[in-house]
Amino acid sequence: MTMYVGVTDMFHKEVRSYNEWNRYTTLAKKRHQRVVSCKRDSAAFQVLVSSDEPFLLAKNADTLFWKGGALNIARVEVAIAGASVHPDVKLIGFMRDDDGTPKADLLLEDSHMRVEARQVQPVWVELPAGESMRAGTYHGRVRLFTHQMFEDEQCVGECTFEWIVAEETLPEAKDYRFYLDLWQHSSNIARKYNTGLWTEEHFAVLDAYLESMGQLGQKSVTVVVSEVPWSGQMSHNDRDPSDLFEYSIVSVQKAADGAFRYDFSALERYIELGEQHGISREIEVFGLLNIWQDTHAGYGALVEGVSDAIRVRYYDEASSTYRFMRGESELRAYVQALEAHFTATGRVERVRILADEPADYDLFNEKLSWLRQAAPTFKYKVAINHVEFVEKGMEGVSDYVPSFYCVVKEHERLMEQRPSIDGTLLYYVCCSPDRPNTFLGSPALESRLVAWYVEQLGLDGFLRWNYTVWPDHPLEKLAYRSEIWKAGDTNFVYPGPLGKPLLSLRYKWLQRGIRDFELMQLLKEQGEGERVKAALARVFRYKQIADCDPDRRAHAEAMYSLSVADYDELLLGVTERV
Predict the structure, then answer these.
(1) Which residues does 576 contact at the CB level (< 8 Å), separation at least 6?
(2) For residues 325 and 250, what is the distance between their CA atoms, to the nearest angstrom?
(3) What local confidence, expressed as pLDDT, does residue 359 receive?
(4) Residue 179 DSSP symbol
(5) Can you give the pTM of this predicted structure?
(6) Pick from 381, 406, 357: which is nearest to 181 by CA?
(7) What is the structure's pLDDT at 408?
(8) Residue 173 and residue 42: Cα distance in Å, rounded?
């Protein structure tokens, strides 16, 4: 048995498709990797292991035997000299893309896995740099040991790495200036862990997911205050539908005397959980504006005189039945109770009522007008596809999130309106464009590119709808509605064991880009704005922003670099003082 081990950068994406016989030996030829980080940051790379025979690969030193009998067992060991650092080592799992091709994405918690002959198995290695770490250059090595049954281990391969830690210290994630807004889907999380809604078990799981978002610098918590505002993502139209309904976090009861009572305890608990993880800038409220409708399928408006389809379910004590509000006055009273609650808790300034992709300006203004009259202190945030919504103006709307298409097609018009925007100006991608995006099949660097585009386009941050919008069995089949949603469109993490998320490579690549953005802000404050401009010039290659229009360009690579070195030069530049 011959074992092979090599190292590569963190943006390697292993794909299990057609592989020539000698591919795994070629990958093993690289035996040294240089990585760079700031303080309060991390550096990462991948180890690539393969063999001409099947084997077990372990990431720790636990005793291990193969259930099927004698089999070679390989162990990866990572050591670094001169630093009290515990490398985070994870085996990387694969998910099938829409075409059935397995692609590396999951950062597994498994301690070992079986690897077939002539398959390259990537291993994630991350080196955390705390704020007190001494700047300088550190050297480490990766060794591969093997044995079978009761044999003594033998070292069969060794690689080295060099880790440069810069003087700069990044802010804590809660203080990132990059405005990250990834929508949360709490009901879907409850389904995957069978916890029930708003139970102790559910909140324990939500705590772990919010922690993972806080580590990215997430700014907003998502709360749904009416039933199924996205109408289950219209899953009723799918040949093989998945349960994607999101339910209200507010419990409503109607007493026998006709008075309504509202229980905001779960709402408060979720907001407080977010605050514990530094997610305290914004409270996104869904379910009050621009509800998705399909009247032919039964997902229409319920309240006469209100064009929006706000669906508030309550328990009627007099009849012992659950019902939906159908009177305008009782719906108005519910909205006003929400407004009063946020005011009483001192959070109303952080509240943003979300509208997801309104298509008709006049119809949307009609819906918005009713809500403004009912609750005049609320502010609004709108994901849009046309600058027209900003130019015409909408009373109460403080934050805008144009699509990537909209930003690059109408950038000049958008920037002309920038002074009129009171709040944040983000951009979003979703099922489109094909490039750039964060799909399972997207080039790895496009996840890093997300934050670079924010700096380049003069925006505040990025929004995506997809942190945990998993189909029914995401670990078995991530692909769902592939003609519209490419695999990976629905998630950045996976439902993992012990009530915690499994992070993905795409999560880590996005995080690296956000940290790049934070470094850019530090450099500009230090008078090194030219260094930032030079970094942007290396990565972006178009002549004018309109050239980035996905409908106009021939090749995405003509717009931006897919060379890791072009991005890493930003980090390498700050190590000159080390």
Answers:
(1) none
(2) 14
(3) 87
(4) E
(5) 0.97
(6) 381
(7) 93
(8) 13
Among 573, 461, 578, smallest CA distance to 528 is for: 573
Query: Residue 45 burial (CB < 10 Å; 0-12/13-18/19+)?
Result: buried
Looking up tokens 């099938």, which residue turns up?
A: 96
Beta strands in 436-534 (DSSP E): 461-464, 493-495, 501-503
* 95 and 487 Cβ atoms separated by less than 8 Å: yes
**If residue 29 lies in a helix (H) or strand (E), which one and from where to where?**
none
Supply φ then ψ for residue 224, to 5 degrees: -105, 125
Instruction: Give pLDDT, residue 23.
Output: 80
- pLDDT < 50 positions in the chain: none
Distance, in Å, from the CA atom of 512 to the CA atom of 518, rounded to the nearest integer, reads 10
Write b or e for each residue in 409-424: b if 16 or more Cβ atoms lie within 10 A of its Cβ, otherwise e.
bbbeebbebeeeeebb
Nearest Cα to Cα of residue 504 among 452, 438, 457: 438
CA angle 518, 522, 525 (to 5 degrees): 140
CB atoms within 10 A of CB 470: 24
| Helix, coil or strand: residue 466 | coil
Residue 220 is encoded by which pair of tokens?
């907003």
Cβ 435 vs Cβ 550: under 8 Å:
yes
Confidence at residue 578, expressed as pLDDT on a 0 to 100 scale: 60
Cα torsion 212, 460, 357, 435 to 10°: value is: -80
Burial letters for 259-286: b for 16+ Cβ neighbours within 10 Å, e otherwise? eeebebebbeebbebbeebbbbbbbbbb
Instruction: Report the run of H or E that residue 563 belongs to, with start and end.
Output: none
The neighbour count for residue 529, using CB atoms within 10 Å, is 12
User: Would you say 273 and 350 are in contact if contact means Cβ atoms under 8 Å apart?
Assistant: no
Beta carbons within 8 Å of 327's beta carbon, 6+ residues apart: 303, 304
125 touches 69 (CB < 8 A): no
Across-strand partners of 114? Answer: 56
What strands, in cross-sheet order, belong to the sheet with 321-324?
Answer: 260-263, 251-254, 313-316, 321-324
For 537, the token pair is 């010039």
Helices 529-539 and 445-457 meet at what angle, rounded to 10? 130
Residue-level pLDDT at 26: 84
Tokens standing for 15? 């794909």
- Straight-line distance from the first to the last Cα atom of the chain, in angstroms, rounded to the nearest whole number: 44
